Amino acid sequence: MIHSTLRAFLEQPVMMVIAVGEASGGAALGRCLGLRLPAGDGPIEVVFSAWQWPDLARSAGPSRAVALTLVHPSTYRTYQLKGRIETVGEGDAADMALADDYIDRMIGMLGALGVERDVIDRWCGIDAVMRVAIRADDLFDQTPGPHAGERIPA
After folding, report:
1. Distance between CA atoms of 42 and 38, rounded to whole angstroms?
2. CATH number for the domain including 87?
3. What total number of domains does the chain contain?
4. Which residues pair with 90 in a beta bridge?
5. Mean pLDDT computed over 54-69
6. What is the pLDDT of residue 133?
7. Residues 32, 85: Cα–Cα separation, whole Å
8. Is the pLDDT at 154 greater than 80, yes or no?
9. pLDDT at 119
10. Is residue 149 part of a domain?
11. Which domain holds residue 101?
């Protein structure tokens, strides 16, 4: 599912929003604070603040439907992965380091685009970090334009 173009895209600092389906039919969502790509065919891992996104923390569970939207702020290039959650767990020291690095990179990129630091700080809390492993089944191009919504073959 992670082809070379998407892998190169994800090696840049990109904004990430995760949405998890709820039993009510709605979705809980939040901003992610880091992403770890699989070495092989493993799941993608993302981290987020359970303190900042408590509904997401409550809703995220194994086998739940999930969508991960990934946007490059300066180009609006956007992908969306859809699949199922494999595992959910409390973040560890490596996840905290991943979040710290991600936040530093986003501060640099968004700052260069003119976004004020206090705006960035509103979604960069790293209290109660959780890790979610996602098994992606589908990949979509969501970049605004004529191909938005098209499935990208694996």
Report:
1. 5
2. 2.30.110.10
3. 1
4. 130
5. 95
6. 97
7. 15
8. no
9. 85
10. no
11. 4-139
